[in-house]
Amino acid sequence: MTSLPSILGGLDPTSDRAVFRQIADQLREAIDRGRFKEGEKLPSEAELVEHYGVSRMTVRNSFSILQGEGLVHAEHGKGVFVRPRPPVRRLASDRFARRHREQGKSAFIVEADAAGSHPTVDSLEVKEEKASQDISTRLGSVRRVLARRRRYLLDGRPVEFAASYLPLDIARGTQIAEPNPGPGGIYARLEELGHRLDHFEEEIRARMPSPSEVKTLQLAAGVPVIHLIRTAFDAAGRAVEVCDTVMAADAYVLSYQLPAT
Amino acid sequence: MTSLPSILGGLDPTSDRAVFRQIADQLREAIDRGRFKEGEKLPSEAELVEHYGVSRMTVRNSFSILQGEGLVHAEHGKGVFVRPRPPVRRLASDRFARRHREQGKSAFIVEADAAGSHPTVDSLEVKEEKASQDISTRLGSVRRVLARRRRYLLDGRPVEFAASYLPLDIARGTQIAEPNPGPGGIYARLEELGHRLDHFEEEIRARMPSPSEVKTLQLAAGVPVIHLIRTAFDAAGRAVEVCDTVMAADAYVLSYQLPAT
DNA sequence: CTTGCCCACTCGTCTATACGAGTATGCGTG
DNA sequence: CACGCATACTCGTATAGACGAGTGGGCAAG
To answer: Which branch of life, at top level (chains A, B) (predicted)?
Structure first.
């Protein structure tokens, strides 16, 4: 094993940079340079206390900086580890193309199978409810909606939580109101019901998760979420669905193709 | 002034939730309910120490949670404040349409003026350099590129840092290599040079900022960045430009329109 | 050999204290 | 009245110590 001093250097007492920041800097640089690899354990708090000659709180302070940056994560009783970058899921802008609606399985399942990971969907909830102000506005002043909520997992890890909202006059009593909407998903059903889809609008934000999002997505410290709100419009120009999606940002890359008209 | 106990309640010693988390929860809830409004000062550390009967470090710990969530920010010598949500800039998917290239001013300037904010561009740098591995791949194995870097500010606040990379055989010696690329920007120049633009590809990620990004974008704690990589393709199918953009996530909403082909 | 316990090591939580540095306010001096 | 300084209040940094709780390995008993 390589000794600590050979990796981590010492402190600069003349610097006006706070000690805990200097320590965080050195650890960050060591990680960036690959001296500590993904999933590898960093020196324990006690070892760093020893190495730098500082108090334990100062070391913990350094770790908390790196946690906030999403670089490391602590495991109680085990140690602090370099956070591995999980495999990312790419969402292409043609993911709602009709040709992808042929198969019986949902886009999420098909795509994950192809990538060799094990996909799951849980927390299914389908019910009628009062529309929030925002959803109501997007759907054109509807009062109540059909809400479909579900959580997506890859290899057991939750990566996305999505809620779809549809006007009752469209969805009530149809297969869309069933837990399993059938092959091609609700978009296929909407088209069968005469709502030929014309285009989608997507709004994308990024922010830190709320405590409840941390819980349902089992997010590590320092992982933001991507908040995507998609509205589907039919050929008549009517908004027929709003899908509100919160994704673990470290699990996704969104990809769009834009014409240069 | 409303007294603290009427806003903040007490601790539950029987709960297994850590004290500093309970305090953070109460503060978060008070903020969510609007008991503390945007920009308003929270009770000082000393006041909370008094109110809860805990040590100062415990209170600071609570504040650090809320900071990580991007809910509050501390100002040395002043206090801890509810972080105001800055006005957001919406980026529509038609922002590169030819019709927007008519005017002399850049898209950023025009749009910000229209929104009533004061736009600035600084840190201009235009130079030839070695292409990074990633840029080289995206541009089709070029070794050296023309790099154009600039930082965008709204009302003095930095919101975006962008770097454009172009193959030398296209850009060298043209107005694209000048600090001011002229009306319509480099896309207008590219088309004049015979590279009629066909489409763009955009890749979007969200993550916590690196320390250098915190510096150049003057990011508050708990603010992620949106990392957007756009590649422009001409009618011949060649990648003629890659633009690497890092945006303060709290200042942007991206918006895309997708056909439902 | 297997089981179970103990112990060493890890991070988590919390207290108490000290000093430094930035900010604002009011008061006294000129 | 204007200026400057003292002062009180704010958060920032750091120390030293205590106890709790999760993990894993070694050792002893069965």
So the answer is: Bacteria
Q: Which of A249, A138, A241 is nearest to A204 (CA)?
A: A249
Residues pairing with B43 in the sheet: none
- Exposed / middle / buried, residue A255 (Cβ in 10 Å: 0-12, 13-18, 19+): middle
CATH 1.10.10.10 residue ranges in chain A? Answer: 4-82
Q: Was domain A89-254 assigned CATH 3.40.30.10?
A: no
Please tell me the predicted confidence (pLDDT) of residue B116.
81
Cβ separation of A208 and B68 shorter than 8 Å? yes
Model pLDDT for residues B227-237, shown as the tens digit of each residue = 999 999 999 99
Can you list the positions of beta strands (E) in chain A? 72-75, 79-82, 89-91, 119-130, 144-154, 157-167, 197-207, 225-234, 239-248, 252-259
How close, in Å, is residue A202 to chain B by CA atoms? 5
| Residues lower than pLDDT 50 in chain B | 1
Predicted pLDDT of residue A2: 58
**Residue A147 confidence (pLDDT):** 97
Q: Which residues in chain A show pLDDT less than 50?
A: 1
What is the location of CATH 3.40.1410.10 in chain A?
89-254
The answer to whether the CB atoms of A255 and B201 lie below 8 A apart is: yes
pTM value surpassing 0.85: yes
Put simply, the answer to whether B68 touches A257 (Cβ < 8 Å) is no
Q: Are B88 and B252 in contact (CB under 8 A)?
A: yes
The alpha carbon of residue B192 is apart from the nearest alpha carbon of chain A, in Å, by 15
Answer whether B6 touches A (CB < 8 Å): no
pLDDT tens readout for residues A4-37: 667 888 889 899 999 999 999 999 999 999 999 9
B-facing residues of A in 20-79 (CB < 8 A) are 25, 28, 57, 64, 68-70
CA B49/CA B53 separation, integer angstroms: 5
| Strands B252-259 and B89-91, sheet pairing | parallel
What is the per-residue pLDDT for A142? 94
Interface test with A, best of B64, B210, B225, B258 (most A CBs within 10 A): B258
Ramachandran class of A63: left when φ > 0, alpha when ψ lies in -120 to 50, beta otherwise: alpha
Q: What is the pLDDT of residue B115?
A: 80
Catalogue the long-range contacts made by B32-39 (C-beta closer than 8 Å, 24 or more residues apart).
Answer: B35/B2, B35/B7, B36/B82, B37/B82, B38/B82, B38/B83, B38/B84, B38/B85, B39/B81, B39/B82, B39/B84
Q: What is the CATH number of domain A4-82?
A: 1.10.10.10
Buried b / exposed e over B189-224, threshold 16 CB at 10 Å, is: bbbebebebebbbbbbbbbbbeeebbeebebbbbbb
**E strand residue ranges, A39-139:** 72-75, 79-82, 89-91, 119-130
Nearest to B154 by CA among B123, B124, B183, B113: B113
